Amino acid sequence: MKNIYIIGIGLIGGSLALDIKKLNPEVVIYGIDNNPEHLEEALSQKLIDHKAELRNIEKADLVILSIPVDAAVKLLPTILDQVSDTGLVIDVGSTKSDICKVVANHPKRRNFLATHPISGTEFSGPKAAIYNLFQNKTNIICEVEETAFKLQEKALKLFTDIGMRIRYMKPESHDKHIAYMSHLSHISSFMLGKTVIDQEKNERDIFDMAGSGFESTVRLAKSSPEMWTPIFEQNKTNVIKTLEEYINNLTQFKSLMERDDFEAIYMEMKNTNYIKQILNGIA
Amino acid sequence: MKNIYIIGIGLIGGSLALDIKKLNPEVVIYGIDNNPEHLEEALSQKLIDHKAELRNIEKADLVILSIPVDAAVKLLPTILDQVSDTGLVIDVGSTKSDICKVVANHPKRRNFLATHPISGTEFSGPKAAIYNLFQNKTNIICEVEETAFKLQEKALKLFTDIGMRIRYMKPESHDKHIAYMSHLSHISSFMLGKTVIDQEKNERDIFDMAGSGFESTVRLAKSSPEMWTPIFEQNKTNVIKTLEEYINNLTQFKSLMERDDFEAIYMEMKNTNYIKQILNGIA
C-alpha cells in the first residue's frame, strides 16, 4: 500500500490516518473533504500529506470512506466506478444494510469491504483525531465473502495492525443489534439532556449539582447531529423498535413507583445489575 | 476532633475515612456497620481503627451517617439522643427532605448537619472506598442555619480540607433538582440496561458490539439496588415527574422518526448539544 485516500477527515478518518502513518511511514495519505477548513486543519495537524479530489482516486491502493452514512451511500458507487482494479474501498459507517445494498450489483463490488469499527468519542472533526483509538476495539465486517480475497487480506492486516479484533456479521444482523448496543444509547442520552435542559436552563446554579453519574449518562448528547441524523434514518425500523421497548420499560418502572411497589423496583435494579458481567467483557 | 464514628463503612463512608485519616493521622476512626463482613474488610483495609457499636457514640466528636436513606431516617433520632452536646452528626444521603423533617423538632437538632456530597462511583461497599473521591466535587448543605455555629464551622473545615466546594440549598429544592441531575440518570441507565439484556441475553456474542458509548450510558446500572430503592421511594413525587417528562421526550422523538421528520430530529439533537457548555462547568 502506497497511496491512501481518506474521504472525510474527521474523528474516525483522522484517527485511522494517524495510526496508519505511524505504522507505515512510507505511505502517502491524501485527504478529501467537502469542508475546506477541515481539510486545512488535517494538513496542518499532519493527519494527511496532501489535499486531493475525488477524480484522483484511480491512483488509490486504499480508499477509506468516513463520511455520514447518507453521503456514503450516495458516493460509494461513483468511488467504485473510479477505483483501479487492485484498489480497496472500505467504509466505516454505523449502518451496514443500505451501503451493502447500493453496491450489491456493482461490477466492482469485489473491490469494496463494508466495516464498522466500534470505536469513537463524542467529539468530531479533524481536531478530535487521536492515536490508538482502535486499540482493543471490535470491527464488524459485513458480507466479507463479497470482497476479493486479496483485498480482504489487505484490510484484515490493516485492522489487526491497529489493534482491532474482527467479527463477521450479516448487514441486517449488524443493524438490528447495533440499534440496541449503540443507537438507543445515543437517543436515551440526547433525551436525558433535553429533559434536564428544558427544566433547568434558567437555573444555571443547578448544574453544580451534576456529578459524574449525570456526566456519564449524558455524554453522548454531545455527539454530532450531522452524523447521527442519517444513521437514525437508515436504521429507522430497528431504532423505533428499541425505542418502543425502552419507553415501555420506563413506563413500567414509573407505574411500579406510582403503586409504591418498591420491592419490584428493587428487583428490576437487582436483575439489571447483570450488566456488570456483560460489561466485564468490554475492553 | 479526636473520635470519629462512621456508621456505614461503604463507598462514601470508607472514602471519607481515608481522606480524614490522611489529613489528620491523630484521629481515631471507629466503624459501625450491620454487615460484619464489611466491618472486617474495613478493618483489614485500615479504613477504620476499631469496630464499635451504636451505644459508644456518646464519645464521638463527629458521627458520619452513611447508610441507605431509609435506614438513616430511622436511625438519626436515636443517634442524636445519644451524641454528646459537642458532638456533630452529619448525614450524606442523596435525599434531604425526609431526614430534615424527622429531626425538625429534636432537642439536639443543632448537633446535626444535613449534607449531600455529590460524588461517588457505581461501586459500593468498603472495597469501593478510594482516596480523593471528593476532590473538586460539590457538597450540598441543607438548613445550615439549624446547625450550631461552632459545629457548622467544624463541618465546613472538614469538607473544604477534602477539596469540596459548598452550596447551600433548601431540602425541598435539593430533592427537586437532584431528581433531574442524578436520580433520573440512574433510572434511564437501569432501563437501558434492562432493554438490552431482555433482547440480547441469549446472544452473548452481541456484547462484542458494545462500545464506550454504551458502556458510558449504562454505567449507572451497576449501582446498588439497596441504596437506590429507598432514594426513589423518598423522592417519589419528584422522580415520577422527571420520568414523565423523559418518557414524553422519548415518545416525541419516536413520533418524529415515524413521521420521517428527520429535520426535526436533527434540530432536537442540535439544541441538546447545548449540554456541552453546561458540562464544561463540571470538574
Structural account:
2 copies of one chain form a homodimer. Chain A folds into 2 domains: 3-170, Rossmann fold (3-Layer(aba) Sandwich), CATH 3.40.50.720; 174-280, 6-phosphogluconate dehydrogenase C-terminal fold (Orthogonal Bundle). Chain A is built from 11 helices and 8 strands. Chain A has helices at 11-23, 36-44, 69-82, 97-102, 149-161, 171-200, 212-218, 225-234, 236-258, 262-272, 275-280; strands at 3-7, 28-32, 50-51, 62-65, 88-91, 112-118, 138-142, 165-169. Chain A has an 8-stranded mixed β-sheet, sandwiched between helices. In chain A, helix 5 links the parallel strand 7 and strand 8. Chain A starts with a strand and ends with a helix. Chains A and B meet through helix 6, helix 7, helix 8, helix 9 and helix 10 of A and helix 6, helix 7, helix 8, helix 9 and helix 10 of B.
What's the rounded overall pLDDT mean of chain A? 95
Secondary structure class of chain A reads alpha/beta
Query: Nearest-angstrom radius of gyration of chain A?
Result: 21 Å
Q: Enumerate the strands of the largest sheet of chain A in spatial order, edge to edge or round the barrel.
A: 3-2-1-4-5-6-7-8
**Count of β-strands of chain A:** 8
Of all chain pairs, the largest interface belongs to: A-B, 95 and 94 residues
Low-pLDDT windows of residues of chain A: none
| Helix content estimate of chain A | 40-55%
Which shape of chain A, going by the Cα principal axes? globular
CATH superfamily of the largest domain in chain A: NAD(P)-binding Rossmann-like Domain
| Quaternary form | homodimer
What name does CATH use for the topology of the largest domain in chain A? Rossmann fold
Order of helices and strands of chain A: EHEHEEHEHEEHEHHHHHH
